[in-house]
Amino acid sequence: MSRTKTNRQPSMGDVAAAVGVSKTTISRYLHGNFGYRGVSGVSRWLADWGNDAHNH
Length: 56
What we know:
Blueprint: H1 12-19, H2 23-30, H3 37-54
Helix pairs in contact: 1-2, 2-3
Domain HTH lacI-type: 12-37
Protein name: LacI family KDG operon repressor
InterPro entries: HTH_LacI (IPR000843), Lambda_DNA-bd_dom_sf (IPR010982)
């Protein structure tokens, strides 16, 4: 995820919207609470995003 037009780093809300989960799910992921269903989706999305970033 690149910086936005206002030249700021993406917020948890920006990431949540891109992944399609809540800000709470992003917070749980960042704090290592992986026991929630949405967190596995975040992990997959970040892995895919990282692979895409390395392929460009």
